[in-house]
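Fig. S4 source data, part A: sequence.
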Amino acid sequence: MARRPFLDRFSSRGPTARDALGPVVRNLEAVLNTREGYGYFQQGFGLGDYTGDRGGKELVPFLTEELQRQVTQYEPRLRDVAVTLRGQDGALCLHFDVTGLLGGEALRLRLIFDTVSSRVRLERKD
């Protein structure tokens, strides 16, 4: 369990959703950057190789569903999770919105999936 900074221990306020965001983002990036079958003992953990067998329009709905399943299953601090495709860019990246509740507060993250390397990056979307 992570320890709170020394002075925060004397504060009457508890940790906020904003305080909890860093560990959530780190966990999700670790899960989504793990390839299925590597780095974890549980079957179904991590994303599969979606660029090898599928291409173009077939990839997007399948990948969106898989991202939704992975976030919901492996990040229990998030509730009411929804993953929505927002578009793509010239660098061959797909952009998704991840929405949900963290500690009762609405949360919106931008998820960027690089279709060349299959790497995932998350950032807060305000």
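Fig. S4 source data, part B ends here. The mean pLDDT is 80.
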